[in-house]
């Protein structure tokens, strides 16, 4: 029996996750009143032959009943019913943008400011986040990336790290990514833009990749960047960080930064963390945007 509690910030993707789990064969119930959670767990276990996989959505919509949840969950475990908690998180600015785009009201806003409602929600859900088995930050995740993470954890039953890393190439002439945690400048590397046969290709094309990587400096930089990230990541995790955006920039974001981002992804993808490589500006002139996800 696998019993998953899906919770987290409003607008972070809980509804999408429940739909994904339902498609994966989970029996899903959303917004069940907190006083009924123990009874629901009892029924789920007694009907194990019918419901071997269950997902229960609980969030701030429970309002005052949320204060009871910690004791209720303790009772569930005391009765011998084991469960996992998936906490969906997202940066505040992204949540605000999503609410403005969808024109939906935050459950705690009641006509007030969304920022205040999000802050209150984060405080009231903090005990759940601390108890979570999995934390997925959707600030920079596309739906297809989220689906792969859910598949990885709850269908393939593979080991999961609560730390998600985005390797992001970009062009300095289009601005530094606002959500970047670490920024690296690779404009010191040989520029394929000045080679006629490479100018209109990108770092996703082998001739450009080979041209950049044949530079001795490219190999040295890649190794030292890899070593530094391997050193930093466990320390970020120890500080409670669950997401890292590593931005690698060149002038236009098409050649050198794309090459180094792809090379770094290949070097790091087998580590125990979840990775995604994206190229923000590779399609600025109508070229195809690509990404890689583990």
UniProtKB/TrEMBL annotation:
InterPro entries: P-loop_NTPase (IPR027417), RapZ-like (IPR005337), RapZ-like_N (IPR053930), RapZ_C (IPR053931). Residues 1-156 form the RapZ-like N-terminal domain. ATP binds at residues 8-15. Residues 164-282 form the RapZ C-terminal domain. Keywords: ATP-binding, GTP-binding, Nucleotide-binding. Pfam families: PapZ_C (PF22740), RapZ-like_N (PF03668). This is RNase adapter RapZ. The gene is rapZ.
